[in-house]
Amino acid sequence: MTKFQHRYKNAFAGKRIAFFAGAILAAATTPDRATAYGNGLAPGEPERRQSTPARKIELSFPSRPPTPAQRPIILAHAIVVRTSPAQGGVADANIGKVDVWYDAGIRDAFTALAVVSASGERVDKRDAAIDGADPAHVSVSVNPLTAGKYTVRYRALSADGHLVSGAWEFEVRP
User: Fold this and answer.
1) pTM of this prediction?
2) CA neighbor of 92 nearest in space, from 22, 28, 162, 145
C-alpha cells in the first residue's frame, strides 16, 4: 500500500457520506490520525510531508415537507386562473372594471388588458394596472357598457420572461 493510499484510508476511515436530494451540507474539520500527534506528522514520517485534516460532511434533513411559503419559486409561464366577468359569462352594464388573475405574479413590463366591443371599438379607459397588493391581479376600468358581446384581450410578461397573451369573451344583456 502506498503512503497516499494509507493516508486516504486513514483520513476517511469510519466516515459515511450520504447523498440525498435537498440535503443541507455543512462541512466541519476533524483531525485525522496524523494530526493527533501535535506536529502534523505520523510517527516515522519525514518532516517534509504535511498532513491535511480530513473534512467531515454532516447532512441534516428536514423533519417535514416545506410549507407553500417555504417552497422555492418555480419559474413558469403565467396562466390565467380567474377572470371577472367570467369567461363566457354575463355581466352587468355598470361593471366598472374588468379583472384577470394569474397563477403567479407578473412583471410590469408589457402588461396589457383591453376590452373591445363586437364592432371592434375599444371601450376600456386604457388604465390597465397590476394590483399593488396582489402582483398576480390586473384590472382595467371600463365605461358603462351597452348590450352585446365583448372581448377582453390580455398580455403579460411572466416571471420567467415569457410573454403570454390570450382573450376571453363575456356578454352584457339588456
Assistant:
1) 0.56
2) 145
